[in-house]
């Protein structure tokens, strides 16, 4: 996990090839404002660096906050959502590019297809399931881009502790911890992606 982040010079950003990222995040509408602020900051960074965001297509929670901010500031965002969720009116009505898919499996595949990084904000079981699947795919060599976990207010500390327990009990190799990087602040995002080997 990445704990020490140095700011890169601005001229270096101009040469980065970060064109798109997938963002996994919560759909809960009852969460603390600090997590909403994190979604807004991630959106602002993507807009500043002209990064296309792919997300789960939702209209509430962190998904809604992320989309609202990007739409408000004329950034580029694409939602990918299953038909049954769209029928339940869970899709964001103002996202111009909303891709409808048959099921959750297809949604996950399309979300990480051809992106330059996956970013996980705080979320519930859906976010955890998406995050763990992409970590597994990276472990199996089926995904080779950065996976960044945004650990706002230590949200993911318990998960990291559990991962270490799995390593201690030899259910997981120690190198598994190198499959993702953790940041505490959204401002660290571009640096971490850019220095990914």
Q: What can you tell me about this protein's structure?
A:
The protein has 197 residues and is α/β, with parallel strands linked by helices. It has a single domain (17-194), classed as Rossmann fold. The chain has helices at 10-13, 33-48, 61-72, 83-87, 104-112, 125-139, 157-168, 189-194; strands spanning 20-24, 52-55, 77-82, 97-101, 118-120, 147-150, 181-183. The protein has a seven-stranded parallel beta sheet with strand order 4-3-2-1-5-6-7, sandwiched between helices. Strand 6 (147-150), helix 7 (157-168) and strand 7 form a beta-alpha-beta unit. The two termini are 14 Å apart. 37% of the residues are buried.
Tell me briefly what this model is.
With 197 residues, this protein is α/β, with parallel strands linked by helices. 40% of the residues lie in helices and 15% in strands.
Distance between the termini: 14 Å
**In the CATH classification, which architecture applies?**
3-Layer(aba) Sandwich
Look up the CATH topology.
Rossmann fold
Strand residue content:
15-25%
The overall number of domains is 1
Structural class by sheet pairing and helices: alpha/beta
Q: Report the top-level CATH class.
A: Alpha Beta
Low-confidence parts, pLDDT < 50 over ≥5 residues?
1-15
How would you state the average pLDDT, rounded?
Answer: 92
Q: In which range does the helix fraction lie?
A: 40-55%
Biggest sheet features: 7 strands, parallel
Q: Can you tell me the overall shape?
A: globular
Q: How much is the radius of gyration in Å?
A: 16 Å
Order of helices and strands: HEHEHEHEHEHEHEH
**Helix run count:** 8
């Amino acid at each position: 996990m990445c704990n020490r982040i140095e700011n890169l010079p601005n001229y270096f950003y101009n040469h980065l090839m970060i064109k798109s990222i997938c963002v996994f995040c919560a759909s809960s509408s009852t969460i603390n404002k600090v997590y909403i602020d994190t979604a807004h900051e991630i959106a602002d960074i993507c807009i500043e660096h002209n990064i296309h965001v792919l997300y789960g297509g939702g209209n509430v929670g962190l998904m809604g906050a992320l989309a609202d901010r990007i739409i408000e500031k004329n950034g580029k965002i694409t939602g990918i959502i299953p038909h049954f969720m769209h029928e339940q009116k869970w899709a964001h009505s103002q996202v111009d590019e909303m891709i409808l898919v048959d099921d959750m499996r297809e949604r996950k595949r399309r979300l990480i297809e051809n992106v330059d990084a996956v970013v996980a904000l705080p979320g519930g079981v859906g976010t955890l399931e998406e995050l763990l699947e992409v970590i597994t795919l990276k472990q199996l060599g089926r995904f080779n881009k950065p996976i960044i976990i945004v650990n706002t207010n230590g949200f993911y500390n318990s998960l990291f502790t559990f991962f270490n327990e799995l390593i201690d009990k030899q259910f997981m190799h120690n190198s598994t911890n190198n499959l993702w990087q953790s940041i505490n602040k959204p401002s660290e995002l571009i640096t971490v992606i850019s220095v990914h080997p």
